[in-house]
């Protein structure tokens, strides 16, 4: 996998977690979904000692407490910090932002940015149902539908496949008869349509807009890619 931050998107039960498991290797560190996370022993210190027994270079300062007394956010942060400290070239994240508050979310986002900045040859693959989790992080996207994974594409290349046009309903309907439609909404005599394929400027006289990153990722999570 080439260096970069990959957004793994798709509907529930599409196979995102299964795909992350297929990427596991000695070169990868994995942060499972919160419900799937396992800890060694009953305390934070027990867990960190077990990690250090496998990865002697990992030395984390994390407040000791019984694992069961930690909040959901504290457990997620502990798991993520351990994965980052291991320092593998491939980091796999399954819903890492679930259950954490705004402050912790900002902390984790910055840690992920630092992780890539420390070594630009690293890759991160993150699955999430929240498009805002990827904003400012993802450089590439992979879609998962029916346990099939699309080829990775850059967000900028994917963006060109979802042009949005607003205009008189009659003109938009004519365009919709020629191009695949992803989303459509009308208000009075005007209609706004997001298409699911590129449209050249020579095909229409109306201005073309393109989705921002969260809008684009929402579309990619629901629009099955063309075969």
Q: Care to give the gist of this entry?
A:
With 227 residues, this protein is α/β, with parallel strands linked by helices. The chain has two domains: 4-152, Rossmann fold (3-Layer(aba) Sandwich), CATH 3.40.50.300; 163-209.
Can you offer a commentary on this structure?
- Helices cover 32% and strands 22% of the residues.
- It is an alpha/beta fold and 227 residues long.
- It has two domains: 149 residues, Rossmann fold (3-Layer(aba) Sandwich), CATH 3.40.50.300; 47 residues.
- A hairpin with a 2-residue loop joins strand 9 and strand 10.
- Helix 3 packs parallel to helix 4.
- The radius of gyration is 21 Å and the shape is elongated.
- The mean pLDDT is 92.
- Keywords: ATP-binding, Nucleotide-binding.
List keywords for this structure.
227 residues; alpha/beta; Rossmann fold; 2 domains; 7-stranded mixed β-sheet; 4-stranded antiparallel β-sheet; 32% helix
Describe the secondary-structure layout:
Blueprint: E1 4-9, H1 16-22, E2 28-31, H2 44-54, H3 72-86, E3 90-94, H4 102-118, E4 123-127, E5 140-145, E6 148-149, E7 153-154, H5 155-159, E8 164-168, H6 169-176, E9 181-187, E10 190-195, E11 208-209, H7 213-222
Helix pairs in contact: 3-4
């Amino acid at each position: 996998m080439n260096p970069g931050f990959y957004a793994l998107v798709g509907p529930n039960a599409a196979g995102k977690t299964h795909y992350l498991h297929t990427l596991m290797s000695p070169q990868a560190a994995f942060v499972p979904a919160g419900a799937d996370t396992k800890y060694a022993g009953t305390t934070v210190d027990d867990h960190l000692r077990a990690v250090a027994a496998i990865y002697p270079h990992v030395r984390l300062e994390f407040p000791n407490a019984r694992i069961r007394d930690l909040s959901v956010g504290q457990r997620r942060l502990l798991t993520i910090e351990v994965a980052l400290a291991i320092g593998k070239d491939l980091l796999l994240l399954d819903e890492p932002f679930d259950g954490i508050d705004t402050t912790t979310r900002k902390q984790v986002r910055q840690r992920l940015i630092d992780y890539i900045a420390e070594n630009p040859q690293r890759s991160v693959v993150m699955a999430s149902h929240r498009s805002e989790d990827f904003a400012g992080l993802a450089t590439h996207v992979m879609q998962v539908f029916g346990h099939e994974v699309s080829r990775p594409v850059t967000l900028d290349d994917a963006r060109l496949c979802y042009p949005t046009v607003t205009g008189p309903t009659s003109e938009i309907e004519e365009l919709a008869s020629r191009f695949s439609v992803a989303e459509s909404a009308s208000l009075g005599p005007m209609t706004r349509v997001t298409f699911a394929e590129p449209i050249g400027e020579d095909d229409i006289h109306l201005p073309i807009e393109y989705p921002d990153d969260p809008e684009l990722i929402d579309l990619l999570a629901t629009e099955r890619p063309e075969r």
